[in-house]
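Hey, I'm writing a tutorial for new members on how sequence and structure tokens pair up, and I'd like a real worked example in the thread rather than a made-up one. If someone can provide the structure for the chain below, I'll link this post from the tutorial.
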Amino acid sequence: MYVCLCKGITDTQIRAAVEDGASSLRDVRKSLGVASQCGKCGILTREILRESLVDNSDEQQLFYAVS
């Protein structure tokens, strides 16, 4: 889905930026240019960013067997 119409940025691109190390709206703006023109996409970008960070942190948890 298109998130930023000004720059033609999709939610998939935002999620990929998070996987590549972006951890804030500033990082996503720097790498993709999202929310740099009219700014209307900033709220949705933040939501996708948060969801992606939570999803990535769940995947990276380590579990150890206790004996």
